[in-house]
Amino acid sequence: MASAQKKLDLHSDNNEILLNPRLPQEDFEALHSLALSIQNERKLKGHVWIATSGSTADSAARTKLVALSKKALMSSASAVNLHLQSTSQDVWAQVLPHFHVGGLGIEVRAELAGAKVISALKDGRWDAHHYYSILKSEKCTLSALVPTQVYDLVAHSYQAPSTLRAIVVGGGAFEVELFKKARSLGWPVLPSYGMTETASQIATANLDSLKSDEFPDMGLLSHATARTNENGYLEVQADSLFTCYAQNTQGGTRSWDPKVEGWFTTEDRGQVLDGVLHVQGRSKDYIKIGGEGTNVAHLRSVLENCALALNPSFPLKVTLLDMPSERLGSEIHIVSLLSEAETDNIVKAYSDKVLPFEKPRRVHYVKNIPRSDLGKILWAQLRSLL
Asked: Which SUPFAM superfamilies would you find in this protein's record (predicted)?
């Protein structure tokens, strides 16, 4: 088993299992045993097991694992290096976990380019001030962040260091207003789209987009193609595609490969126009309220932008989700860490921008909004709190 400090041997036939060391021991062991069982069953060689984000899994032990070949990881890394024009002169500031495809991807890119990687975590955890000080002291040129981390930098009004060439932003929706605030502070942020199944990003804004403050297009990288199927879902074909899934279920261990003729159907709706990816949201985000259709991800974006307009730190302290309703089928609820007065201001601003049926019908005040190591909200855990 590979630890968080162990460097991945890209050219060996050994398999590696990269799991979050902070998982409860029982869950860690269940996932580790799953990976061992399936790699033996499928006779896998030269693969790395990585867990998906697990934001909807009902328990950590039932999180889906993804088997990525080392060739897939190197294909992705080569394409990203080409896109970012990365060389041995670059210095990556690393704050994404080794056990996540975003963090591992940085390490592989750096190895292929001969670039340097500097850990910018504080005691193994994200800290905006520490990250900022590392960027300056180490003269970092490249980095990768999730939107939550960009929020923190904007909330502190940090001005980007002049040595920084680009920051790839992925792992969640990157709101336009947050993008504009980051760019106004000089941060060279490049929106991207990717997933564990593709060994990181497959579409990213280009470096020329940094000459403008307009939200940029995400062009497909050299190793990937995409299309929309008849149901409106994005399908991806890439040299970096995963080999198979593995999961613990009530019926025992399971592994499967969902690709059809080399194409992987994602859970995202979207379009591909002239090599540019336009993502419209996940299928699970489309719900009906009293017979009217809406997109929860879009509503969440509206709420976050309203919160951001009031205070840069507020978007991390309030969210919304759909809850079952006997009368309407589904209804919108707000979840807040803020005071009643602060929440009321955000809800009022939000309600002015949405249709009547999309307005919140209840506000929950909680002490904690559970998040993953990458800042993604763990929706199953949040629902259990309510």
From this structure: Acetyl-CoA synthetase-like
